[in-house]
Amino acid sequence: xxxxxxxxxxxxxxxxxxxxxxxxxxxxxxxxxxxxxxxxxxxxxxxxxxxxxxxxxxxxxxxxxxxxxxxxxxxxxxxxxxxxxxxxxxxxxxxxxxxxxxxxxxxxxxxxxxxxxxxxxxxxxxxxxxxxxxxxxxxxxxxxxxxxxx
Length: 150
Prior knowledge:
Elements: H1 6-12, E1 23-25, E2 30-31, H2 42-53, E3 61-66, E4 69-74, H3 76-87, E5 95-99, H4 104-113, H5 122-134, H6 139-146
Parallel strand pairs: 2-4, 3-5
Antiparallel strand pairs: 1-5, 3-4
Helix pairs in contact: 2-3, 4-5
């Protein structure tokens, strides 16, 4: 099987390649919902700022849409870095975002598996595991979803 781009392969179904939609979102539209993001690391924010200033491409953030509001699911450090750079005068009009589909429990599971260079502390991870149990997930389901043993 031969193809010259992933876009062509996905459009013509020439390979097991699919197109994932992302969106360019104004960072000022994104709201942060308390309780669904990891603690903020100033060092991590500053690393993102430095990378962005140097022209690096950062991964898209994940957001959900609820009643017309764009709400952060994953990527708060990137969002803070971009907002601070805008305040400092860097002309950033948008950032890439992927729309997250799932319920509150799935958002917590996503948080537990999306470290992106900044792992949760054991205490923060434990709090999120307990939260999944309150959503009705048993320990076997939690372990399978986050790639851990019982």
